[in-house]
Write a structure and sequence with these properties.
Elements (H helix, E strand, L loop, with lengths): L8 H21 L4 H23 L5 H4 L1 H17 L7 H25 L4 H22 L14 H17 L4 H22 L8
Helix pairs in contact: 1-2, 1-4, 1-5, 2-4, 2-6, 5-6, 5-7, 5-8, 6-7, 7-8
Length: 206
């Protein structure tokens, strides 16, 4: 396909590292031991990518083929273990890291979907699943109702906004891929942080 494009792999690896930090923080706050922190960090960081690659039927998931992904995930887990006592003072930074994670994963998932020939809506769906899939798997494993299914501050909404922005800019408006990715990730972060600051929340239907 001559009209495809690609983001460098470091986009995906950066998202893996950042998401693993968020996973480590979750596991530490739940009182898990070192093994629990390592496993939750790995699941959260590569779970979305696993779901993405399974949906795209693109062969063995890249996280299972490329050892850099596990290395990035566990490096982030170690950072989380070292800094866990400072978590309360780093809450704002953690919120930003979380928002960056969903932005990066969403963009990378949408980009890979477009490369495999999915339509615009399909790419948005896979991109959002890539962004929030790790959190869904985490909640299922620890027997929680998935967070994105409950009313709360914009999380999936921020992911949808960023992914949709990327697809429109990169595929419809033909803006440079890296620039489109930066704009879209910035939009995700802005939406998420404003929601946290001003308490914007989705509402119950009944």
């Amino acid at each position: 396909m001559t009209d495809t494009f690609a983001l460098p792999i470091w986009w995906d690896l950066a998202a893996t590292f950042l998401y693993a930090l968020v996973g480590a923080r979750f596991a530490i706050m739940r009182g898990y031991d070192v093994v629990g922190v390592l496993m939750i960090s790995l699941i959260v960081s590569v779970g979305g990518g696993l779901l993405r690659d399974i949906l795209l039927q693109s062969g063995p998931p890249v996280a299972l083929r490329e050892p850099l992904y596990v290395g990035m995930a566990w490096s982030a887990a170690i950072v989380g273990l070292v800094l866990y006592k400072k978590v309360p003072r780093l809450q704002r930074m953690i919120d930003v890291v979380d928002a960056l994670s969903i932005g990066l994963y969403g963009v990378f998932g949408a980009q890979k979907s477009l490369m495999f020939g999915l339509g615009l809506l399909g790419a948005i769906f896979v991109g959002v699943l890539n962004a929030v899939g790790g959190g869904i798997l985490r909640d299922v494993i620890v027997r929680n109702e998935p967070e994105i299914f409950r009313p709360g501050t914009f999380y999936a909404v921020a992911a949808i906004a960023g992914v949709a922005c990327f697809v429109v800019l990169a595929r419809i408006l033909n803006i440079d891929t890296d620039l489109a990715a930066v704009i879209s990730i910035a939009l995700t972060v802005v939406v998420r942080m404003l929601a946290l600051k001003y308490g914007w929340k989705t509402k119950r239907l009944s």
